[in-house]
Amino acid sequence: MKYLAKVLENNKTLKRLDLAKNPNDSCALVSAAFQIQNDPIRSTIHLRSQKIGDDEVRFLADAFSGTEMKFIELDLSDNEIGDVGAECLARVLQNNKTLKTLSLLHNRIGLIGLQCLLDAFGINQVTYFTK
Predict the structure, then answer these.
(1) Residue 37: which CATH number?
(2) Superkingdom of this entry's organism (predicted)?
(3) What is the pLDDT of residue 32?
């Protein structure tokens, strides 16, 4: 993991990070958070099938907070995100004006989480949403 983090720290041209189906899900999550904090201009972040739940989404949301994010696509499909995680994502979306695609297929988000996300879309410019 430390090698991937070092590469991401020094790489200024990477625009897409795809860690989908990584066998070491904690590595993917920590690496994504690290690269997001250090370079908020990545345009695509894929974290499909990482067993990410509400606690991990809260961790990612903390990495996103306080930073003007410029990514346009976020894929968190096939994870274990519930209403609490959706609420954390909604808070992040209120500060991200560039996100166009959010994929949350095959998660555990219920009506409460969905409502939080839909409220955030009133502020955000998301044009494609899958749940």
Answers:
(1) 3.80.10.10
(2) Eukaryota
(3) 65
